[in-house]
Design a protein that fits this description.
By secondary structure, the chain is of the alpha+beta class. The strands form two sheets. Strands 2-6-5-4-7 form a five-stranded antiparallel beta sheet, sandwiched between helices. The protein has a four-stranded antiparallel beta sheet with strand order 3-1-8-9. It has helices spanning 14-27, 54-65, 98-114, 141-150, and strands spanning 2-8, 32-33, 40-48, 71-81, 89-96, 127-132, 158-160, 162-171, 174-184. It has a single domain (2-184), classed as Cyclic phosphodiesterase (Cyclic Phosphodiesterase, Chain: A, Alpha-Beta Complex), CATH 3.90.1140.10. The protein starts with a strand and ends with a strand.
């Protein structure tokens, strides 16, 4: 099974992301946009593992959620990986209770390390992927300014009340996401 642990975007906030993507579609029609039912903030991608690992992953999430109250983050800016000028992925960064996101992420990372599963060594940046590109896409300064204007609009905070364990199932060029477990914060 392909597992990942994430904070799901509340359904009431997904309209905001649809609005961002609609504006982006007029500027960048060749982008492959993330469907709104797959919007999430990944804490850890675990990749292919045996199905029996699910129980241990749920315990890691329970431990990570312990003592962390419900909190809020707000969409704040657009960036890209590996960078904004030559992105393979375009994403929305968040502001707000980032310390809670980082605390949960570190607890998850520690739990995965205890299981003998490595975690991504790259610097963790809390983000929500909204689009993907082919390898040749570039963003010039003019387009970058337009992206900044999109994010200048006011956004509602997103209330994060749980951590989820997902399974990613390949389905053609895309993946389906099944929720395997949801652990409430607190």
């Amino acid at each position: 099974m392909r597992f990942f642990i994430a904070l799901e975007i509340p359904s009431k906030n997904r309209l905001q992301f649809q609005a961002i993507q609609a504006k982006l579609h007029t500027l960048i029609p060749q982008a492959k946009f993330t469907s709104d039912d797959k919007l999430h903030l990944t804490l850890a991608f675990i990749a292919d593992q045996p199905p029996h690992l699910k129980e241990a992953l749920v315990k890691i999430i329970q431990s990570a959620a312990k003592g962390v109250p419900v909190f809020e983050v707000t969409p704040a800016y657009i960036d890209g990986f590996p960078n904004i000028h030559k992105p393979q992925v375009l994403w929305v960064g968040v502001k707000g209770d980032i310390d809670k996101v980082l605390q949960i992420r570190e607890r998850v990372k520690d739990g995965l390390t205890d299981l003998g599963l490595g975690s991504d060594p790259r610097r963790f940046i809390p983000h929500i992927t909204i689009a993907k590109f082919n390898n040749n896409f570039r963003i010039d300064r003019e387009l970058e300014v337009k992206l900044e204007k999109i994010m200048a609009m006011p956004f509602d905070p997103m209330s994060i009340s749980s951590i989820k364990l997902f399974e990613s199932i390949p389905s053609g060029d895309f993946h389906k996401h099944n929720t395997l477990a949801e652990i409430k914060l607190g």
